[in-house]
UniProtKB/TrEMBL annotation:
Protein name listed in UniProt: General stress protein 39
Source organism per UniProt: Clostridium ragsdalei P11
Gene name in the database record: ydaD_1
Pfam families, alphabetized: adh_short_C2
Organismal lineage: Bacteria, Bacillati, Bacillota, Clostridia, Eubacteriales
Similarity remark: Belongs to the short-chain dehydrogenases/reductases (SDR) family.
InterPro entries linked: NAD(P)-bd_dom_sf (IPR036291), SDR_fam (IPR002347)
Length: 290
């Protein structure tokens, strides 16, 4: 075990485990990811996002769930998009409602362009506005070499990890007003690739980093900021769903901190980028790894 917070202990190693389907299910993971700060790691919320509406893809679990709960604590209403992980999504929705905020769950395939319009329309019908778009959902397939990456897998990885970011941004922009914020989830592998475990995934995260910079430049005149977060090794459903059990067991153990991050440790960066505290930041990516 590794202690980085007084009174908190987080695992350095994990029981070997693998899930056969993407993008992964959180409630069957051992141990479950920590999506809210333990008592010793909590910080004072100041309602920085009061009455904002945030749309988060992959908001049912992992980093997306942590961001959804952090936003709710800051006063935002939440729409979460997910594929078919209904138990995880209902758990996130229940927590957000207990925090006193509204939550809309939308199960849908974000890899289909037409679905992005359906998503945005549901958000507008339910909340009447959209202030924050968090493009976060992803898939990860393990491979040792480029020969193992089929054209079908390559296209699907980019369709979820990159194309969906384009699709949802295009669909959302007509409804986003000056002061709006778009936040894209990139990865350590876009800037400092230490793994070589998934060429298509790593290439997609590099594309997201570039997309973030250039989208920021194209939207600055409209008063909409675009930034990114690049997490390192984090304990989310994507890991047991994408990696072999033996690699899952040691996930994060070789980082300088000696363990994988927990989702709640990544979420504050998304709060900062969505709030007025980052009003002069656009085209930037916050690196969240040791």
């Amino acid at each position: 075990m590794c202690s980085n917070h007084i009174g908190c202990k987080f695992p350095r190693f994990f029981p070997p485990q693998h899930q056969p389907h993407q993008p992964g299910i959180e409630y069957i993971m051992t141990p479950r990811p920590v999506f809210e700060p333990p008592l010793c790691a909590q910080y004072q919320t100041t309602k920085r996002l009061l009455n904002k509406v945030a749309l988060i893809t992959g908001g049912d679990s992992g980093i997306g769930r942590a961001v959804a709960c952090a936003y709710a604590k800051e006063g935002a209403d939440i729409a979460i998009v997910y594929l078919n992980e209904h138990v995880d999504a209902e758990g996130t929705k229940s927590r957000i409602k207990k925090l006193g905020r509204r939550c809309l769950t939308i199960p849908i395939n974000i890899g289909v362009e037409e679905n992005s319009k359906i998503i945005i329309q549901e958000v507008m019908n339910h909340f009447g506005k959209l202030d924050i778009l968090v493009n976060n959902a992803a898939v990860l397939y393990y491979n040792n070499s480029i020969e193992e990456v089929s054209s079908k897998q390559l296209e699907w990885t980019f369709r979820i990890n990159v194309f969906s970011y384009f699709y949802l941004t295009k669909a959302a922009l007509p409804y986003m007003k000056p002061g709006g914020s778009i936040i894209n989830t990139s990865s350590i592998v876009a800037f400092n690739p230490p793994y070589g475990i998934s060429l298509d995934y790593e290439a997609s995260k590099g594309a997201i980093a570039n997309f973030t910079i250039n989208l920021a430049r194209s939207l600055v005149s409209r008063g909409i900021r675009v930034n990114g977060v690049a997490p390192g090794e984090t304990w989310t459903p994507l890991i047991p769903a994408g990696l072999p059990a033996d690699k899952v067991a040691v996930w994060g153990s070789k980082t300088p901190m000696g363990r994988a991050a927990q989702p709640f440790e990544i979420a504050p960066a998304y709060v900062f980028l969505a709030s007025n505290e980052s009003s002069y930041m656009s085209g930037q990516t916050i690196h969240m790894y040791s």
